[in-house]
Design a protein that fits this description.
single chain; 139 residues; mainly beta; SH3 type barrels; 5-stranded antiparallel beta sheet
């Protein structure tokens, strides 16, 4: 079973919080932090809606956790022949992690090509996220 965790950036401080996600009565987004405060209690933090992202359950090549909204360098191989000795073809680029149609994917920032995480030959390296590092999205 995989960990289900979300993150979001606090509206007031800009700090990132990790934990459980819920939507309030006024469509406000909140994270119930898994990190306890100074007196040992969990906190409910109001976060910016556009910064909320779910943990994918998959680490990058450096064992960093990858969340929806992260920007990664990626590469993957496709076997182009039924011959097991054939080279195949390599693809690489910079992409944003998205969740579409029930699956996590990396979406190339230039071509918008989406590669599902279940590709066994997909390798990613975390570079930042679209909130803190929007310059990485520039093609």
């Amino acid at each position: 079973m995989r960990d289900i965790e979300f993150r979001g950036q606090c509206i007031d401080s800009g700090e990132w919080f990790y934990g459980y996600y819920f939507k309030g009565n006024n469509d406000d987004c909140h994270i119930i932090s898994t990190k306890k405060n100074d007196i040992g209690l969990t906190q409910t933090i109001r976060v910016k809606t556009e910064t909320v992202g779910q943990y994918t359950g998959i680490p990058d090549a450096e064992k960093e956790r990858i969340f929806e909204g992260d920007i990664c360098d990626y590469e993957y191989w496709i076997q182009t022949s039924v011959d097991p000795d054939s080279e195949g073809r390599q693809f690489f680029g910079v992409g944003v992690v998205v969740f579409i149609d029930g699956a996590f994917m990396i979406e190339d920032v230039k071509t918008k090509l989406r590669v599902p995480f279940h590709y066994t030959e997909l390798t990613m390296t975390l570079r930042g996220n679209k909130t803190d590092n929007p310059e990485l999205l520039e093609a």
